[in-house]
Amino acid sequence: MTHPPSRPLNLRLLNDYEVVVLGLRSMLRPFADRIRMVEAETGSVSDVTADITLYDTFGRSQVEGLDLDEVLRDGDAGHVVIYTWNMRADLIRTALDKGCRGYLDKSMGADALVRNLEAIGNGEVRVSDTADFFREESDDRVDSVDSVSDRGFWPGRDAGLTAREAEIIALVTQGLTNAEIANRCYITINSLKSCIRSAYRKMGVERRSQAVRWGMENGMTPPSARGRAPQRS
């Protein structure tokens, strides 16, 4: 049985998108006596000591990237926990093998999130039970873009973009090619193109250059990518 800690856990969220950070802060506000967000800002590694660092994969490399390796080497990060919609078994195994202490589904409610964070703070390793980790091995690529939950916070939600569509448009805005985006999101090129078409209709754009401009005007550009010239697909 997990017992709440004697003091609030210091939680740091790593995500470059302001709406995501503010959304998590709002979701956890009723649990301020149990979870205290430190450096709840956009950005990456800092000098603030955390008990737990949530590594949010939205718009950034998944667990195989160097970004995560840097966080795991940070002595102020505490327990590193992946916070994602991508619950593939191979990614979970990679994260745990690297030393992450948890792999949590972003679709879970606030109470479940807090309970899992407290368990991790007590030394447990937690993986969401929605993960492919508990089912048969998943394929390397999926043909559906609808498997991502629509619960949570992301830029472009107010415009009707799903979480998957928003992440793809964020990566388009960052200048990644279609091949790079498909590899990062673990979807097929055909699924990616279908998702882009759907997003374009909701955004009211027709061309990639228009999508990049829309993304820049709607919070899709993280601070680390501002000023970088977009690439062509």
From TrEMBL:
PROSITE patterns: HTH_LUXR_1, HTH_LUXR_2
Pfam families for this protein: GerE
Residues in HTH luxR-type domain copies: 154-219
The keyword Nucleus is annotated on this UniProt entry: no
GO biological process: regulation of DNA-templated transcription
CDD domains given in the database record: LuxR_C_like
Gene3D superfamilies referenced in this protein's UniProt entry, alphabetically: 3.40.50.2300
Entry keywords, A to Z: DNA-binding, Transcription, Transcription regulation
GO MF term set: DNA binding
PANTHER family, A to Z: DNA-BINDING TRANSCRIPTIONAL ACTIVATOR DEVR_DOSR (PTHR44688:SF16)
Protein name per UniProt: Response regulator transcription factor
